[in-house]
Design a protein that fits this description.
Blueprint (H helix, E strand, L loop, with lengths): L2 E7 L28 H14 L4 E8 L5 E7 L12 E6 L6 H16 L1 H4 L1 H4 L2 E5 L4 H7 L57 H11 L5 E9 L6 E5 L12 H19 L3 E5 L11 H7 L5 E7 L14 H21 L8
Parallel strand pairs: 1-4, 1-6, 4-5, 6-9, 7-8
Antiparallel strand pairs: 2-3, 3-5, 7-9
Family: Belongs to the peptidase M14 family.
InterPro entries: Peptidase_M14
Protein name: Peptidase M14 domain-containing protein
Length: 348
């Protein structure tokens, strides 16, 4: 039986430099002084596969409404390719278009697992990873085109009967969808939940990554920017209900505390731990609630990075390195828990 962890990273940066060089050979230094384009990220993934074929494999996970391919990286030792006994870690980022820092955090996770395997071998030897660094490439690409586009949140769907474009992927999942809790039926609103639950190709791509492990144990993490408070936070379900908590909330809290402790120990950053709705405004149709409410995932979290910049999500480029470090240590802590996680613990 597998243990599966899905980590979805969603955060953002405003007015930050974009890499201009197309020399992908330089990306192995992992230049976090600026933000990478979608093409550069995909090229880096392919370079990882070329340089480390025994660990890394590029996979097409989906395709947007406009035909852009959504790529993922599978990280598993070649000798374990056919086994179904390993815990599985699923990582997604960039469902929210402006979340450049989340995308770079996913790139850093790939980098640490593959190029620093010698330091983190146990969580590669004993886990299988799927990482989708840009789950909403149409929106991500659009957000990089001009300064005016920088704060774009949604994908690039053409909404019938409206001149306004796009659906918020993190409000489109079929769990408490369309209730108006932190979402909107207005296509012009950043929190527009879409014409129907699960209507978006980006949503379906993330769902596919979760649903293929529906019958086996797994966990989920979504990483987002904190626009409510200064500190970072690690929160657990439910986003759509201040009163609702999972049956295993004590375990959820324990693992969240371990993740927070790891971040504090390694970086000095403070991350609060609490249920989602005790820290943020409630929201329906989120990927985290879908993972728990539909697929019965026993461990699910939303990690909020510390607020920065003018709006909280507009993290300046000089903050990239410390934030991706914080994300990495939280992910590593959860991965180490997954390695030792009892297989019979599947109750939610």
């Amino acid at each position: 039986m597998r243990v599966v962890i899905l980590i979805s990273l969603v955060v953002a940066v405003l007015s930050a430099p974009i890499r201009q060089s197309n020399d992908i050979s330089q990306l192995h230094t992992l230049d976090f002084n600026s933000y990478w384009t979608y093409d550069e990220i995909v090229d880096y993934m392919r370079q990882l596969e070329t340089d480390h074929p025994n660990i890394a494999r590029v996979m097409q996970m989906g395709r947007t409404e406009r035909g852009v391919e959504i790529w993922g990286l599978r990280i598993v030792l070649e000798e374990h390719l056919e086994t179904e006994e390993l815990p599985v870690v699923l990582v997604t980022a960039g469902a929210i278009a402006r979340d450049w820092i989340a995308v770079m955090s996913a790139v850093d996770v790939m980098h640490m697992l593959v190029e620093h395997y010698h330091s983190y071998g146990p969580i590669v030897d004993n886990l299988e990873w799927f990482i989708i660094p840009v789950a909403n490439p149409d929106g991500y690409i659009f957000s990089m085109e001009t300064e005016e586009n920088r704060g774009w949140v949604k994908n690039r769907r053409v909404n019938s009967g409206s001149q306004c474009i796009g659906v918020n992927i993190e409000r489109n999942f079929d769990y408490n969808w369309g209730t108006g809790i932190g979402s909107s039926d207005d296509p012009c609103d950043d929190n527009f939940y879409g014409p129907a639950a699960d209507s978006e190709e980006e949503t379906k791509t993330i769902q596919f990554a979760v649903d293929i492990f529906r019958r086996i144990q797994h966990a989920y993490i979504s990483i987002q920017a904190n626009t409510v408070g200064f500190n970072g936070a690690i929160t657990f379900p439910y986003a759509s209900s201040p009163e609702g908590i999972p049956n295993n909330w004590e375990e959820q809290g324990l693992v969240a505390a371990q993740m927070s402790t790891a971040v504090r120990r390694e970086t000095g950053a403070r991350y609060l731990t609490a249920s989602f709705s005790n820290i943020q405004e409630p929201a329906d149709g989120t990927s985290m609630d879908y993972a728990v409410g539909v697929d019965n995932i026993p461990l699910a979290y939303t990690i909020f990075t510390p607020a920065a910049g003018e709006f909280g999500w507009d993290v300046p480029a000089w903050r990239i390195n410390p934030i991706v470090d914080q994300v990495w240590y939280a992910v590593e802590s959860l991965a180490r828990y997954a390695v030792d996680m009892p297989l019979e613990n599947t109750s939610v």
